[in-house]
Amino acid sequence: MLPDRASIWITCIDLFLEPDREHESATRQMKIKFKDIEEAYDFVSFGQYGDHTALLDKSSGKIYWRSEMGDSDEIPDEIWESDDTIEIPNKNDLDLGNQLVFDFVKSHALADYEKVRAIFDRRGAYARYKNFLESNGLLQKWDDYEEERQEKALRDWCEENKIELDG
Known about the structure:
The chain is 53% helix and 11% strand. By secondary structure, the chain is mainly α. The longest helix is centred in the C-terminal third of the chain and has 22 residues, at 139-160.
């Protein structure tokens, strides 16, 4: 028995309105391992601001690395120009540089705030700051604080930039 005209029309309409699964999966963003984002962030934050760059291609999950020191590959122009590509932030972009230090000092060593501020008046401040922390029994607290704030800032950045995380 042949189907009637109404059921043929309904079938045709259903096929027309059904989402294109092949196209949908091609444009869907890949989940990115949080560990990969952290590694790229560490790379970008190492050295002077702007010395290192990492770009995330959100559609493929691939991270492209570039260093002014010449020890990593150049990033192809099409990656720079892609709408699916986003630059991994530096710690200063996320207020995780000196501001993080002063936030920690305010909450854990307020009496030494001016002393720490003086430490950061000259080059090489971070090494002197670490020595200060160690001599005051605060180094482990600092490491935990820094790690916690960094993870939260990176996860917030991923959420703001619609990066789906795996882990």
